[in-house]
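re: ur question from yesterday

yeah so i grabbed the chain u mentioned. its 295 aa long if i counted rite. heres the sequnce exactly as i have it in my notes:
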Amino acid sequence: MHFNFDFTAVQVIWTLTFAAQLVLLVVLLGRDRIRRFPWFTASIVLMALRLLASRLLFGRLPSLTLSAIFITMADLAAIVGLLVLVELARRAFGGVQRRTWIVGTLAVLAVGAGVLAVWGPWPAWKTLTADSTLAVLRLMQLAALKADLLVDLLTVELGLLVVLLGRRSNAGWRSHTQQIVIGLSTASIAQLAVQGIWQIIAHTAAPHTQAEYERILGLRDKLFNASGAVYVAVLVFWIVCLWIDEPGAATTAESPQGTIAQPVFLSPEGADIVSQEPNAGPVAAPAEERTENPE
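ran it thru and got these structure tokens back, copy pasting raw so excuse formatting
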């Protein structure tokens, strides 16, 4: 028995990615995670919009207009990606001393900038300073590519720091901050690996026939599809982790004795038990009174 499966790998990955992003946004909204991770939520929204725009606008607008739209969105996504790292780093290491924070930030940035400087070719200075619309788009595209690469490098570094040192601060095991950083680091490692492998292939491959050229392009597509599949797995990981509360979150509403705080009952005279301080709200009855079940 044979099944007719007319969808390509790119279409399947696009559909799974977009659906997983929508489900993740529902989880972030329904479980009240947006208040804690606003920039992370904004990055998911922006990536979903980029996916939707690529499906709706490709082939329906002039190439120059289409390039301007997607390059602008890529620059915006890189800026939001940097803000996401700042947000997660503050939540993970917000309790450290300011001097330690500054030294650590400078060290992480120095390593990322050093790798960025030697990664990939850089265009000529005349190309960057040319006065034309196409040159401006090329400059914006270069900024988007390099900023995206820098975000990936910084994400991997932040992931290592959170895994190694997170338990000492606010990013312990199974915390949402650590889970988000682990997912981002996994996706960034896959992205960096694909870029590095493709650069090696592009510099060493020398196709002599059309068949060899098409085989190399097919290998490139498989690499990028593998990176997309890893990102889908990361989205599913986030959906599951962010749906589940952090350890200890369910006991924050409990009393110090470990029992759930009961509502304040009326006194026999019909008035609420209140404190003696002005403008103070009702307070709970003593523990021995709360254990009773008033009629």
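noticed a couple things. The chain has a mean pLDDT of 79. also Residues 4 and 12 are 14 Å apart (CA to CA).
anyway ttyl
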